Amino acid sequence: MATAQKASTIINGVAVDDLLSTIEAVKATPSIAKFEFRMRNQWETGSRNRSSVTTFTGANRELSHPEPFTLEADEPNILLGNDMAANPVEHLLHALASCLTTSMVYHAAARGIQIEQVESSFEGDLDLHGFLDLNPRVRKGYEGIRVHFKISANVPDEQLQEIVQLGTGHSPVFDSLTSEVPVTVTAGRL
Fold first, then answer.
1. Average pLDDT over residues 67-92
2. In this predicted model, what pLDDT tens digit does every residue of 31-58 receive, in sequence order?
3. How far apart (Å, rounded) are the C-alpha atoms in residues 123 and 154?
């Protein structure tokens, strides 16, 4: 006799039962929470370069994506590029946008909060005086980033900010940008 399988609860496109099972598995075996993500980059010419993402380590094993992902970068014409791809600081905004959104909808789903739609806009201010080494007091990176979310959810207006805080409170990219992250850089010959 066949046994009936319990259908997974789906909220915000997230299999909540699987998410909760993952949380319990990490509690039971903390070592499976450790991940190492990798990317390889190849300079092409001028401001154009291409990165590929193939493998990563997680849950105590080596894993790979079904197909490698390719990310391309260039600069706009005004910054001497060919404008054939988003530039690195635009990629950074995308990383922040996608991580905040994913963190928000996953954590909302875990709390049973149904979100119908999320849109966001990101703006970052950068002053070339830093990058061009014309003024040592000017940052080389973003001086500030502004984020605005529009959310459609069946919650009171005052709860919308709480939903956004699920993203900022749990996003690895937000944490990496707003906290000091050690970065080690080495060089060798090809």
1. 98
2. 999 999 999 999 999 999 999 999 999 9
3. 28
Domains recognised in the chain with CATH numbers = 28-85 (no CATH), 87-179 (3.30.300.20)
**Tens of pLDDT along 107-151?**
999 999 999 999 999 999 999 999 999 999 999 999 999 999 999
Torsion of CA 84, 88, 93, 97, to 10 degrees: 80
Q: How is residue 107 written in tokens?
A: 């954590």
* Ranges of H-type helices in the chain: 16-28, 88-110, 128-131, 157-170, 172-178
Name beta bridge partners: 151: 118
- Contact call for residues 168 and 100 (beta carbons, < 8 A): yes
What b/e string do you get for 51-69 counting C-beta neighbours within 10 Å, with b at 16 or more?
eeeeeeeeeeeeeeeeeee
Collapsing DSSP states into helix, strand and coil, what is residue 142?
A: coil
Tally Cβ neighbours within 10 Å of residue 190: 2
